[in-house]
Amino acid sequence: MEQKSPSPIDIKPGATGALPKTSSINWTEIAVFFVIAVGVSAPFRLDWITPAKWLPFPYGLDIFYAVLRGIGPACGYLVVTRFLKSTVIRDISFWGVNGMISFLAMLILPVMMAIVGTTEAAAQNKHYLGCLYGVMLVLYALGEEYGWRGYLQPALAPMRLFPKVMLIAVLWYLWHLNFLRPGISPKMHLIHFLSLVAGSWGLLKIADTTKSILFTAAVHLSFNVLADGTGRINSPLLIIGVAGALWFALIRFGIIGRAVAVKER
């Protein structure tokens, strides 16, 4: 009898029973993922391709071209899962264990950015631009999180926590390609790398708890807001502080609390 090649393994979030485990890591597949992630994003991250100059959009909509800078990891995810038929066991989905909670988590930053507005509103309303910027950051973060947490994190599941976090942080740092940009001091490179180590650990924990790429991408936005070098974002610390409190409440009472209540029934 002819055997079919294995298809990508997806575990539905919330499914009962022990997850199957893999004891080996497919480094070749990870290398393919990473090369695609870098190769797709690099022309936009390094400004080799600037579509806004060729085809500018009205009403501030050309800000969405920035999404292309973060789309590489999602492309890598697509190739290894759909074309290479990866057998990595993935228990993280778009909506996760609670789709409504993940949706609310995603709304927080765009809504807050619409409320406080941006610092530049020459031709457009500052609240309108704040909303556009927030939505763009959601899409940008989704492009990254489909790769880093949607594929790479489960692909490295056999590793212990510390080396896994460090490896993800190193690949994440290299993907940004900031070392190819002149004028960035060694101190700033170190700060950037340490923030990615912290982010790799924190987002790993959030992904493990929520099982949601969308929720994880929502929290990912906080790093983009804090690292904003354009000066467009008003009151970034206020935004992150309020958003962090709301995300904590959603996880504590919407996901962990509900799971405890279900167990106690």
Residues in helix, %: 55-70%
* Unreliably modeled segments: 1-8, 14-20
User: How would the global form be characterised?
Assistant: globular
Biggest pleated sheet: 2 strands, parallel
Radius of gyration, in Å, reads: 19 Å
The helix count comes to 9
Mean pLDDT: 88
Number of domains: 1
Counting helices, strands and paired strands, the structural category is mainly alpha
How far is the first residue's CA from the last residue's CA?
Answer: 46 Å
Number of strands: 2
| Percent of residues in β-strands | under 5%
**Oligomeric grouping of the chains:** single chain
Give the strand order, joined by hyphens, for the main sheet.
1-2
State the order of secondary-structure elements, H for helix, E for strand. Answer: EHHHEHHHHHH
Name some characteristics of this structure.
single chain; disordered N terminus; 265 residues; 9 helices; mainly alpha; 2 strands
Write structural notes for this entry.
- With 265 residues, this protein is mainly alpha-helical.
- It has one domain.
- The chain contains nine helices and two strands.
- Strands 1-2 form a two-stranded parallel sheet.
- Helix 4 packs antiparallel against helix 5 and helix 5 crosses helix 8.
- The N terminus is likely disordered.
